[in-house]
Write a structure and sequence with these properties.
Oligomer: single chain
Largest sheet: 8 strands, mixed
Distance between the termini: 35 Å
Structural class: alpha/beta
Length: 324
């Protein structure tokens, strides 16, 4: 299939490369010309502007926007709305707030355009292992784009009969549902990361001078992380990236531990509050990130290491601004 990709950061570039690998024709655009040329060298069709992307695509067009949530995505979709024709589709694969999807889908429908929201999980590892995709939109539109989603998924194959969930992608519901599910996914992610981090802090301080001498335990937390990866019920991709970081430096001295948040954890908790759903673990995990920007501990450095390992996130040396 043909598809346009707007935004060639860590995720957009890797999504494009995976689509090219699976035989799709990808027209790419980014404000950084070097990023466009790098993808062109890998087989993408370069475009000089949004209008150029639209010109190179054959109707009915599909344009994937992979930009930070907020103004960048808002303004780009507004510009594309004026360039595309009835029957074309705009895919938002970033971490957009799901209620914004409801508004945009309504606005696009009035122009004869389709909106698809795709919660995209997999981080920098997805380029090779594939991405988990949670998709919201009209059923027939999602079905038409199925070869794209199948190629990006861990299955990497054309969709077959039955549920596509085992392949790693799923049409979860109407407009907004994709980002709603991804929002909750990231809220859970916060809680899992915090649990690992606190556990590793207990292990790291088992030989602390504040512990009675007779009770001190000199533990190799890098080796413990590694053994947990093999056969343990707590094994996971998050543990994999934690073990890698600890193997490189068990003290994690290169991580500030001032843990940022990109909004989804806040939105998850706000949604839970609106609906009177208790989310004690997820809320505590978010508050721990706030606290990390004032008073760093080793657990925070573990979370920073995980964020870099799976998402390429680099915590600022000083106190980062939240991006809610």
């Amino acid at each position: 299939m043909q598809i346009g990709m707007i935004g060639l950061g860590r995720m957009g570039a890797n999504l494009s490369r995976r689509l090219i690998k699976h035989g799709h024709n990808v027209v790419v655009s980014d404000v950084a010309e070097a990023s466009v040329q790098a993808l062109a060298a890998d087989g993408a069709q370069p475009a000089s502007s949004l209008a150029d992307v639209v010109r190179q695509l054959t109707p009915p067009r599909a344009v994937w926007v992979m930009l930070p949530a907020g103004e960048a995505t808002e303004s780009t979709i507004a510009k594309l709305t004026d360039l595309l024709d009835a029957g074309d589709t705009i895919i938002d694969g970033g971490n957009t707030f799901w209620k914004d999807d409801l508004r945009r889908a309504k606005e696009l429908k009035e122009r004869g355009l389709h909106h698809v929201d795709v919660g995209t999980s997999g981080g920098v590892l997805g380029a090779t292992s594939g991405y988990c995709l949670m998709i919201g939109g009209e059923k027939d539109v999602v079905a038409r784009l199925a070869p794209i989603f199948a190629a990006l998924s861990p299955g990497g194959e054309a969709p077959g009969q039955g549920s596509t969930a085992p392949q790693g992608w799923l049409h979860v519901g109407p407009n907004g549902a994709g980002h709603f599910v991804k929002m909750v996914h990231n809220g859970i992610e916060y809680g899992l990361m915090q649990a690992y981090a606190e556990g590793f802090q207990i292990l790291a301080e088992a030989n602390d001078t504040n512990v009675p001498v007779a009770e001190r335990l000199p533990l190799r937390i890098d080796e413990i992380a590694e053994v947990w990866r093999h056969g343990s019920i707590v094994s996971s991709k998050l543990l994999d990236v934690t073990a890698t970081a600890l193997r490189q430096d068990a003290s994690l001295k290169d991580f500030s531990g001032k843990v940022d948040d990109t909004g989804e954890g806040r939105w998850t908790i706000q949604t839970a509050i609106e609906r009177a759903i208790p989310t004690m673990t997820l809320t505590a995990a978010l508050y721990a990130r706030f606290r990390s920007r004032r008073d760093v501990n080793f657990a925070d450095k573990v979370i920073s290491a995980m964020r870099k390992g799976f998402g390429g996130h680099r915590e600022a040396a000083g106190e980062p601004k939240s991006k809610s």
